[in-house]
C-alpha cells in the first residue's frame, strides 16, 4: 500500500491500496484511470499529492495539472499544463522523438503561432495528443495527475476521455480528481470518463467521529462533547475540521461545543480572510492578485497587479506561506477552496483586476489564449485592443480543434470585425449552432476573400440542413465578385452543392459539363461520376477518372473532408473497375491515416466495405462497415450511409435478423441522405420478410427520390433487379419481364456484366446470367448465378449434372463469405447425391478484416507503431492481430507475409 508518510491520511486505506495497485499495474504496462470523485475538502487533493510522491519514488515520470474556473475557456489549458514543462526542457532530438509519427498532429497545440483552420482538426489533435502521451510513456512509465478536473476546459477533457479509452495498453496511470455535479462543469465529459472501461471510481467518504477525534486531539486534548460538535457540524469533512482548528481560539472544552456549531458554516471563508488580514495591510491585495492571475502567477506580475514593489510582494507571499495559505514552491494556494474564498471576496473589483491582469500578461508576452481568459472575466467593453486579442485566441482555438472555446471567445469581440465574424460563423458551424447570421454579416462587411470564405461555410451549413437550393443561390451570388483562386474553389463547391439538389439533376450535369474543361480534380471527379450515373460504359468513365487522379497527391488537394473523391470512387464501383477502385481507396486511406481524422477514416472504411462487398469478401465487408460506424459515431450522414451498406451486406450473407438490427438504427431518411439508398434497402428487407406490397411501397419511394437525380451514390442496378423480383412476387409477370429486358440492354451497353447477370436471374434466365457473371469481377454475383444453374439442373432431375455447378458455387460462395448461399448449396449437393465436406476457412480467407489490414500494412513496410497510428488502434492491438495472422497463415514472421497473402 502507498505510504502516506508522517501525516497519515485518516480512513483512506482503501483508496491508497487501490491507487497502489493501479500504480503497480502502470509500471507493468497495464494502464488505467483513477477517478477520485468527492465534494470539496474531502481528501482528493491530499490523495493525489501522496500518489505523486509515491510514483516519483518508484521511478515514474509525473506530470500534473490543476483546473481553475478562469481557464475553462482556455483551449487545451490542462493539456498545456501537463506537457509544456516536459516539452520546454526537451532538446531538439528528444522533442523530435516525442512528436514522431502521428504525435506530430498535436504539435500545433504547443506552437507559439496558430495553424490553418480550414478544416476542423478536432479528431486529429486528439489523435496526436494520444500518441504524444504514448511516446512519453515509451521512455518511462507515466503518471498523469489532473486535480480539480471539474474546472478543466472541454478540449482537454475530450483528450483525457480519448486517452482513458485506450490507456490499457500503455504504462500510464491517469489520476483525476473532480467534484461531483459542480456548477459550470463539463459534466457529460466527466461522466464519460467515469464510464471508460479502464476507470476505477474512488469516492473518498467523510471521516467518522473517531477520525475527527484523532484530528482534534492532534492539536489538543478535547473533551467528548467538543469532538462531537466538530464532527456533527463539519459532517466529517477533513478540510473543514482542519480550518476550524487553525482559525479559531478553541481549546477543546465541552462548553465550547455550541460555539463550534455557530462557527463552522462559514469556517473556511471567515478563517482564511481573517488570517490574511492579520498579516499586513498588503497581504489581501497580494492574495487577490495571486488568485486572479492563477497559473500565470509570477512575483513581478503579482506585484504589478497588487500595486506594490516586487520586494514588498515577496515579503507578503512569505507571510502568506507561513500562514499555510500559499505554497511558495509553486506560488499556488494550499487548497483550491482557499483560492475560491479569495476569489469570492473580490466583489465588483474582480472585473477591473481581470482587465488589468490581461494588460500585464499581454505586455509580458503571454499567449493570447491566456490573456483572453481574463478579458472574458472583465466587463464587456467596446475595446479594439481586447477585441483583437479575443479574435486571435478564437482563431487559434479553431485551428486547434476547440470550436466550443472559439465560440465563446469570438462572440465577445466588440466591436466585431469581418474576420472575427467569419471565425464565429465557422465555430458555430462546427458545434452545430446556426452560423448564418454571423456569416452573412462577415460577407456583407468583409473583403471579397472573406465574403467567399463565409459563403463557402454558409453553403455547407445549408446543405446539412437539407437546403441545397439556398446554398446554391448564395454561391452564385458571390461568384462574380470573387477573385481567383477562391473563385475556382467556389465553382467546385457549387457543383457539389448542386449534386444534393433533388429537384433538378440537369442543372448539376450542366454545371459539370461547363467547368470540366478547367481540369480541376473536383470537376473531373464529378465528370466521371456523372458519366457513370448516366449509364456510360467504362471506356467513357475511366479517362476522366485517370485525368483527375494522374497526380497521386490529388486526395490531399481535394481534402479529406470533401466528397468529390467519393463521387469518383463510386463511379469506379458502378462500372465494376475493381483494380482501379482498390488502388484509389488505398490512396484515400493513406491520406486519412496521415490526417488523423476519425470521420474521414470512417468514410474510407465505408468505401473499403463497399469494395469488399462487390469484389471481395462479405465477412470482411461487414467488419469494415462496423469499424466505419465506430469511427463515424455521432455523425448523422455517414452513420446513415454506412448503416445502409451494413444492412445490405447482412442481407447478402442471408442474415435477415442482423439486417433488421442495422436498419433499425438508421433514422427516417430525409432528402439529403436518400441518396444512400435507405428506402431501397428497406424494400429488399420487406421482400425477404415476405411482404412484397411493403417492399414495392419503399422501392417506389426510393425511385421518386432518385428520378430527379441520376447522379446517385451507387447506381441502382440492385434496385432494378429488386423491382423485377417484387413485381414477380406480386404476380405482375409481364411488367417485370418488360422492365427487366430494358434494363438488361442498358447494362450490356455499359459493360456492367454483374448488373446484367442479376437482372437475368430475376427473370429466370439462368444460363444468360451465368454467361454474364463469368465476364464480371463480382464474386457474389458469379456464385449466385452458378448456384442457380445447379438448382435448376437438380430440379430437372439431372442430379449428376447439377453436382458440377453446385460444387463450383459452393467454393465461390465460401471464398466470398456468402454463408447462407454456401449452406443452401451444401444442402442441394446432398439432395443431388453428393457427400460434401463442410468447408473451413483457412489461410488468407480465415483472416478478419482488421487482421488482413494489419498484415497488408506490414507487407508495405510499415512498422508496428506506424500500423497502430494508421488504424487508430494501440500498439498492443497491432501485435495481437499480427500474431493471429501468423498463426492462421502458418508462417513464422513478417518476412513471410507477402508470399502468404498472395497465395
Automatic annotation (TrEMBL):
Stated name of the protein: AAA family ATPase
Coiled-coil region(s): none
Annotated Gene Ontology cellular component terms: cytoplasm
Organism expressing this protein natively: Solirubrobacter phytolaccae
Example GO biological process: regulation of DNA-templated transcription
InterPro entries registered for this protein in UniProt: AAA_16, P-loop_NTPase, Sig_transdc_resp-reg_C-effctor, Tscrpt_reg_LuxR_C, WH-like_DNA-bd_sf
Keyword annotations of the record: ATP-binding, Nucleotide-binding
Domain HTH luxR-type per the UniProt entry, residue ranges: 840-903
Molecular-function annotations in GO: adenylate cyclase activity; ATP binding; DNA binding
Amino acid at each position: 500500500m502507498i505510504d502516506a508518510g508522517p501525516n497519515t491520511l485518516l480512513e483512506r486505506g482503501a483508496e491508497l491500496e487501490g491507487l497502489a495497485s493501479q500504480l503497480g499495474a502502470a509500471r507493468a504496462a497495464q494502464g488505467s484511470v483513477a477517478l477520485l470523485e468527492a465534494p470539496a475538502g474531502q481528501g482528493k487533493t491530499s490523495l493525489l499529492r501522496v500518489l505523486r510522491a509515491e510514483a516519483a519514488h518508484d521511478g515514474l515520470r509525473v506530470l500534473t495539472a490543476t483546473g481553475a474556473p478562469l481557464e475553462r475557456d482556455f483551449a487545451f489549458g490542462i493539456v498545456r499544463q501537463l506537457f509544456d514543462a516536459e516539452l520546454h526542457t526537451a532538446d531538439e532530438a528528444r522533442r523530435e522523438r516525442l512528436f514522431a509519427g502521428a504525435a506530430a498532429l498535436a504539435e500545433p497545440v504547443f506552437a507559439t503561432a496558430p495553424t490553418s483552420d480550414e478544416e476542423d482538426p478536432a479528431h486529429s489533435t486528439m489523435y496526436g495528443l494520444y500518441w504524444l502521451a504514448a511516446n512519453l510513456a515509451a521512455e518511462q512509465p507515466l503518471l498523469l495527475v489532473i486535480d480539480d478536473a471539474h474546472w478543466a476546459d472541454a478540449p482537454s477533457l475530450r483528450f483525457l476521455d480519448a486517452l482513458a479509452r485506450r490507456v490499457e495498453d500503455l504504462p500510464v496511470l491517469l489520476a483525476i480528481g473532480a467534484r461531483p455535479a459542480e456548477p459550470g462543469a463539463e459534466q457529460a465529459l466527466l461522466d464519460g470518463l467515469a464510464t471508460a472501461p479502464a476507470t476505477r471510481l474512488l469516492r473518498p467518504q467523510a471521516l467518522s467521529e473517531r477520525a475527527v477525534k484523532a484530528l482534534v486531539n492532534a492539536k489538543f486534548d478535547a473533551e467528548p462533547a467538543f469532538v462531537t460538535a466538530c464532527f456533527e457540524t463539519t459532517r466529517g469533512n477533513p478540510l473543514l475540521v482542519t480550518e476550524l482548528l487553525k482559525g479559531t481560539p478553541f481549546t477543546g472544552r465541552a462548553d465550547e461545543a455550541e460555539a463550534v456549531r455557530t462557527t463552522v458554516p462559514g469556517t473556511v471563508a471567515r478563517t482564511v480572510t481573517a488570517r490574511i488580514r492579520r498579516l499586513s495591510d498588503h497581504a489581501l491585495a497580494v492574495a487577490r492578485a495571486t488568485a486572479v492571475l492563477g497559473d500565470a502567477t509570477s512575483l513581478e506580475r503579482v506585484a504589478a497587479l497588487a500595486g506594490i514593489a516586487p520586494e514588498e510582494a515577496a515579503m507578503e507571499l512569505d507571510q502568506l506561506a507561513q500562514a499555510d495559505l500559499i505554497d511558495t514552491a509553486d506560488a499556488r494556494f494550499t487548497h483550491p477552496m482557499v483560492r475560491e474564498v479569495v476569489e469570492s471576496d473580490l466583489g465588483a473589483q474582480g472585473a477591473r483586476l481581470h482587465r488589468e491582469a490581461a494588460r500585464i500578461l499581454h505586455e509580458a508576452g503571454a499567449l493570447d489564449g491566456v490573456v483572453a481568459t481574463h478579458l472574458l472575466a472583465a466587463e464587456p467593453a467596446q475595446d479594439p485592443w481586447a477585441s483583437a486579442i479575443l479574435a486571435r485566441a478564437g482563431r487559434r482555438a479553431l485551428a486547434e480543434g476547440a470550436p466550443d472555446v472559439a465560440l465563446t471567445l469570438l462572440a465577445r469581440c466588440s466591436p466585431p470585425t469581418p474576420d472575427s465574424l467569419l471565425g464565429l460563423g465557422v465555430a458555430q458551424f462546427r458545434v452545430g449552432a446556426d452560423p448564418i447570421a454571423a456569416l452573412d454579416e462577415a460577407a456583407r462587411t468583409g473583403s471579397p476573400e472573406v465574403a467567399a470564405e463565409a459563403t463557402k461555410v454558409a453553403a455547407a451549413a445549408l446543405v446539412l440542413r437539407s437546403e441545397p437550393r439556398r446554398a446554391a443561390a448564395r454561391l452564385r451570388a458571390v461568384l462574380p465578385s470573387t477573385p481567383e483562386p477562391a473563385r475556382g474553389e467556389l465553382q467546385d463547391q457549387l457543383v457539389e452543392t448542386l449534386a444534393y439538389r433533388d429537384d433538378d439533376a440537369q442543372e448539376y450535369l450542366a454545371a459539370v459539363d461547363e467547368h470540366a474543361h478547367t481540369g480541376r480534380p473536383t470537376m473531373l471527379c464529378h465528370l466521371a461520376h456523372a458519366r457513370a450515373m448516366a449509364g456510360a460504359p467504362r471506356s467513357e468513365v475511366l479517362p476522366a477518372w485517370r485525368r483527375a487522379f494522374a497526380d497521386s497527391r490529388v486526395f490531399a488537394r481535394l481534402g479529406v473532408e470533401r466528397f468529390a473523391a467519393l463521387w469518383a470512387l463510386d463511379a469506379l464501383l458502378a462500372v465494376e473497375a475493381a483494380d482501379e477502385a482498390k488502388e484509389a481507396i488505398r490512396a484515400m486511406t493513406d491520406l486519412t491515416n496521415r490526417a488523423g481524422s476519425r470521420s474521414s477514416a470512417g468514410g474510407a472504411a465505408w468505401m473499403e466495405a463497399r469494395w469488399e462487398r462487390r469484389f471481395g469478401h462479405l465477412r470482411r465487408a461487414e467488419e469494415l462497415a462496423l469499424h466505419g460506424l465506430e469511427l463515424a459515431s455521432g455523425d448523422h450522414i455517414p452513420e446513415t450511409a454506412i448503416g445502409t451498406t451494413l444492412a445490405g451486406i447482412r442481407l447478402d450473407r442471408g442474415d435477415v435478423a442482423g439486417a433488421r438490427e442495422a436498419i433499425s438504427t438508421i433514422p427516417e431518411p430525409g432528402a439529403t441522405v436518400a441518396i444512400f439508398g435507405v428506402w431501397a434497402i428497406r424494400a429488399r428487407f420487406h421482400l425477404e420478410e415476405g411482404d412484397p406490397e411493403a417492399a414495392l411501397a419503399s422501392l417506389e419511394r426510393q425511385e421518386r427520390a432518385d428520378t430527379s437525380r441520376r447522379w446517385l451514390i451507387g447506381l441502382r442496378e440492385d434496385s432494378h433487379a429488386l423491382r423485377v423480383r417484387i413485381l414477380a412476387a406480386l404476380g405482375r409477370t409481364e411488367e417485370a419481364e418488360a422492365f427487366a429486358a430494358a434494363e438488361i440492354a442498358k447494362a450490356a451497353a455499359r459493360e456492367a456484366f454483374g448488373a446484367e447477370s442479376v437482372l437475368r436471374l430475376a427473370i429466370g434466365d439462368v444460363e444468360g446470367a451465368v454467361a454474364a457473371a463469368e465476364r464480371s469481377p463480382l464474386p457474389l454475383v458469379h456464385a449466385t448465378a452458378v448456384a442457380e444453374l445447379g438448382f435448376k439442373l437438380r430440379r430437372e432431375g439431372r442430379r449428376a449434372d447439377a453436382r458440377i455447378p453446385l460444387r463450383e458455387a459452393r467454393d465461390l460462395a465460401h471464398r466470398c463469405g456468402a454463408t447462407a448461399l454456401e449452406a443452401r448449396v451444401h444442402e442441394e449437393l446432398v439432395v443431388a447425391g453428393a457427400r460434401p465436406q463442410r468447408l473451413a476457412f483457412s489461410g488468407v480467407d480465415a483472416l478478419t478484416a482488421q487482421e488482413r489490414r494489419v498484415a497488408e500494412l506490414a507487407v508495405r513496410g510499415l512498422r508496428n507503431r506506424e500500423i497502430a497510428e494508421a488504424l487508430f488502434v494501440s500498439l498492443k492491438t497491432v501485435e495481437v492481430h499480427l500474431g493471429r495472422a501468423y498463426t492462421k497463415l502458418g508462417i513464422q514472421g513478417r518476412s513471410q507475409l507477402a508470399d502468404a497473402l498472395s497465395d
